[in-house]
Amino acid sequence: MQLNCHHSSMRTISALVLLVGIALHLLQRGRQPSAPPAFKPVTDGLYSLIQRCQPLPFLPGVPIAVYLVREGSSWALVDAGVPAHAGQLVEALRVTLPPNDTLAAIILTHSHPDHVGALPQLLQAYPHVPVVAHEGEAPFLTGEKHYSPPSGLGARVARWAGVAPETPLQVPRERLHLLEEPLMDFSSYGLEELVYIVTPGHTPGHISLLHSASHTLLAGDALSFIRPSLRRARDSDARDTRVVGTLAGLTLRAEPLTLCLKPSCDRAKADTSFCMLADGMQYDNLLASHDWAGGGRGGWTQAALQAVAASMPRCQELSKLAAEGSPDGDAHAEYEVEEQEEEEDEYE
Ligand SMILES: [Zn+2]
Questions:
Q1: Whether residue 216 has pLDDT greater than 60
Q2: How far is the CA of 323 from the centre of ligand 1 (A)?
Q3: Does the global pTM surpass 0.85?
């Protein structure tokens, strides 16, 4: 009996807490800033716009970074954010791009809904600009396949939270430029200092981008820094760029996470991509699309990434194979032979 009573009061409290949360969430949604946020310089030739999305009340907003890369008068947009902030992104782009410069490409790290949100508006605003993505993402861009169910309760909740489009995405085939090679630069778009590397796992055709001019790696969702860890505050925290906040002697840190959600993610490939990003190329700063610390402008050093990779079984296995001289140990080799397998378990 006591248990029942306890349960019913718990239910009432939970319902109240949820209602207050929803009210706060709606209030926050109603208070969207009217002025468009501008892209802010991260480093030479690289700019970012950070959007925030709160899928559920009480959860801290997940940051979503959209980048702009510039070389001379050629610009490329990297990812298109969430649908809820599509108008702001288009406006920020208009404000940031000098009138005589060219948007040469809209490059997608992958086509999850939180990375393609403004595509319909961008296709209209920039009718001659191609959408560049790896061929593994093509069916998800043309509307042939879907990363999340386009209808049902889940879809309604995602639309309500502003992370899913009102209507399924359908990029006209003639607007798509598909990448087939495992690694190549974007010189055909006037961007010689931008190179893509195929980093599958999170999605079948996920790519990361190396901006060689600024020694910055844009890792997309190959890894994220949204896993919280609460620890006792230490003296060294003042210099720790991963500290998101401090409270009552505790610090909240953003820890790396290989975001691998079924059914679109392949865990083994995601881990291999992570190891490759940690050890397979040189850069000073790694920026992920979702990073609580640094607001998408802080980044991770390669040494910090390597320290994480050293603790991952897959990376240990690959470096052991590399030390033994096995071709399997060369993470790059895997990408050269990688065939985009037909995944049967996507939602249709
Ligand atoms: Zn994402």
A1: yes
A2: 34
A3: no
CATH number, domain with residue 268: 3.60.15.10
Domain of residue 274, residue span: 37-220+258-337
Q: State the distance from the centre of ligand 1 to the C-alpha of 6, rounded, in angstroms.
A: 39
Centre of ligand 1 from the C-alpha of residue 316, in Å: 27
* CA 87 – ligand 1 centroid, Å: 19
Could you tell me the distance, in angstroms and rounded to a whole number, from the CA of residue 110 to the centre of ligand 1?
A: 8
Reference 55, options 326, 256, 290; nearest CA is 290
CA 64 – ligand 1 centroid, Å: 7
Cα 322 to middle of ligand 1, angstroms: 31
Instruction: Tell whether the model's pLDDT for residue 203 goes beyond 70.
Output: yes
Question: In angstroms, how far apart are the furthest CA atoms of the chain?
Answer: 75
* Cα 231 to middle of ligand 1, angstroms: 26
How many A from CA of 250 to the centre of ligand 1? 28
Give 36-48 pLDDT, tens digit per residue.
578 999 999 999 9
For residue 154, is it within any domain?
A: yes
Radius of gyration of the CA atoms of the chain, in A: 21
Identity of residue 64: I
- Number of alpha carbons in the 13 Å side-chain half-sphere of residue 118: 24
Query: Which residues, 6 or more positions from 313, have their beta carbon under 8 angstroms from its beta carbon?
Result: none
**The residue to which tokens 């807490």 are assigned:** 17
Residue 11 confidence (pLDDT)? 55
Q: Is residue 32 part of a domain?
A: no
4: pLDDT confidence band, cut at 50, 70 and 90? very low
> Could you report the per-residue pLDDT of 120-165, keeping only the tens digit for each?
999 999 999 999 999 999 999 999 998 877 677 777 777 777 777 7
